[in-house]
Amino acid sequence: MTDLKHKILTAVTEDLSAIEKALNENLNPHFDLVSRVAGHILFAGGKRLRPLLMILCARLCGYTDRNTARFSTIFEYLHAATLLHDDVVDGATLRRGKQVANHKWDTPTTVLTGDFLLARGLSIASQTGSYEVIETIAEITENMSQGEIRQLERKGDISLTEEDYLEVIHCKTAVLFQGACRTGGLVAGAATDRVKRLADYGYHLGMAFQMADDLLDYTQDSSSLGKHAGADLREGKLTLPLIYSLAWAKDKDRKQMVALLNNPDFSQPEFVHLVEMMKTYGGIAYTQTQADMHIQKAKAAIEPFEDFTTQEILVDIAEYALVRKL
Amino acid sequence: MTDLKHKILTAVTEDLSAIEKALNENLNPHFDLVSRVAGHILFAGGKRLRPLLMILCARLCGYTDRNTARFSTIFEYLHAATLLHDDVVDGATLRRGKQVANHKWDTPTTVLTGDFLLARGLSIASQTGSYEVIETIAEITENMSQGEIRQLERKGDISLTEEDYLEVIHCKTAVLFQGACRTGGLVAGAATDRVKRLADYGYHLGMAFQMADDLLDYTQDSSSLGKHAGADLREGKLTLPLIYSLAWAKDKDRKQMVALLNNPDFSQPEFVHLVEMMKTYGGIAYTQTQADMHIQKAKAAIEPFEDFTTQEILVDIAEYALVRKL
């Protein structure tokens, strides 16, 4: 474990326990099967980053009500719901090193359990007593589903631009981080400009987080990734490292890259060669720079807050998002 | 068209136009594909029964705000979302006489468009300014997904009892009718006991509606049904006509029924013979009686309301639910 990770985990030990307890207590399924399928994804070693962000943002605004952990489950339930639906979408077989739910059970059960988790998130949102929170949650769900649809629609489309990519990752990833941080401010009853700053922190963190994730798909081996490396490429999913490299590649290399993108059965040496080309054309470095820029903006957004202890944890989390697996 | 159907449609012409307009205006997708997939299910000749019930229940309480049509879209969006997810679940190929979305597009796009519609329903619910409405909507979604999971889990299970069946159809169908009618009362600001009466009307109507639907799967031909007759049997889905018949059948006949239930490739003559047996053992008549009982309770629930014009339409709808296709 890196020093930074250790430092963060030590600072949030109690919060993580409270989140874990709340996730268990608030699931409330009628039937055993729902509990098993939801549990398969919910209790598979998730980092609880999204609920943690909500709790920390609320605390940054001076709010320490004990309901915070319960409200924070909204963001893990929504996240788990999208993971279940994504697995159906992606056709992947592994998630967090475990068999995906739609292989262990079936697609229908997985889809319906995702629906249940979405609904649980909304039920708990309705208990916050804040229309702004409820609207935030509904908007998150609208955006996430549309981001995924957009990504799916553009699969294998080599004309995808950096702008298109940014729109997709905003919808599918950053809105949830943004919403979690925004909700932290809202439940704390913070002033509008402060809520806006927290939302900005979440947005930039989410953008950087997804960019780092997309980089990892090219730079890390399968065992530490908990899923198969090169998965994005295999699914024809264009992400920033490849988009940038395609734009700058010489014709010959560009053709090779496109051929790989259109061949889900590429070999390991072919994949390694692609990553080399992406390094040559700067796709890896550019993505790192962009992710870093978002992290700087995230940190700047929370600078004016006075609770320096909590602020430091949020800064650490932002920095860790960048270095975690690079 | 029957006289009763004609009478109802004449009475609600303006409401149906307002619903149609609101469904179009409130969909608000970012992307064209979402609009096409959602439109495929939304504008395929649905009866708009659920939004209509909300509007009529609000009117029964003296509420005629022009926002009612917009709020009523919640129930059609939720309904369409569950139809999209059900089609993935059921593996059927036809819905309302059209190819199902997951055949026309694919399963992932269908699942995600369903998510988008769920989220739209929630977003609009958050605009009602009533926590009770929002909670009602969240609970509907929780119950519907669980009802479907339960049904799926018990597929082909001949030990399914009438009680199990009632629990499933309550969750998967009646809660949405109940929620639509309840919401009508809530947006009208009606007293608690009146809201309860409207919810009861919706509940009993929904139960009867699903029973009538389950009967139709045995008693009507494919062309007027808009999907393939015998679909429930083919999917191993036990419904009340069969559950009752199985309970009362002689050993020899019972074995024949179970054999058909376990053979999705049954022939048309085999199906006709099964329906004959179900008539003999009273499964058809019993289901009709039960549906009728629920309709009587639905009508009784709205008796004390003073707006006789609206009350009459709701009574007509209840009666039509029973006779519509039997």
Characterise this structure.
The structure is a homodimer of 326-residue chains. Chain A has one domain (3-323): Farnesyl Diphosphate Synthase (Orthogonal Bundle), CATH 1.10.600.10. Chain A contains 17 helices and two strands. Chain A has helices spanning 3-11, 13-25, 32-42, 49-60, 68-90, 101-104, 107-126, 131-153, 162-187, 192-219, 222-225, 231-234, 240-248, 251-261, 268-280, 283-301, 308-323; strands at 94-95, 98-99. In chain A, strands 1-2 form a two-stranded antiparallel sheet. In chain A, strand 1 and strand 2 form a beta hairpin. In chain A, helix 16 runs antiparallel to helix 17 (308-323). At the A-B interface, helix 5, helix 7 and helix 8 of A face helix 5, helix 7 and helix 8 of B.
Write the layout of secondary structure elements.
The structure is a homodimer of 326-residue chains.
Chain A (H helix, E strand, L loop, with lengths): L2 H9 L1 H13 L6 H11 L6 H12 L7 H23 L3 E2 L2 E2 L1 H4 L2 H20 L4 H23 L8 H26 L4 H28 L2 H4 L5 H4 L5 H9 L2 H11 L6 H13 L2 H19 L6 H16 L3
Antiparallel strand pairs in A: 1-2
Helix pairs in contact in A: 1-17, 2-5, 4-5, 4-9, 4-17, 5-7, 5-8, 5-9, 7-8, 8-9, 9-10, 10-16, 10-17, 13-14, 13-15, 13-16, 14-15, 16-17
* CATH class (first level) name of chain A: Mainly Alpha
CATH architectural grouping of chain A: Orthogonal Bundle
| Total beta-strand segments of chain A | 2
Q: Kindly give the count of domains of chain A.
A: 1
Largest interface: A-B, 44 and 44 residues
User: Which structural class should the secondary elements of chain A be placed in?
Assistant: mainly alpha
**Helix count, DSSP H or I runs of 4 or more residues of chain A:** 17
CATH fold-level topology of chain A: Farnesyl Diphosphate Synthase
Strand proportion of chain A: under 5%
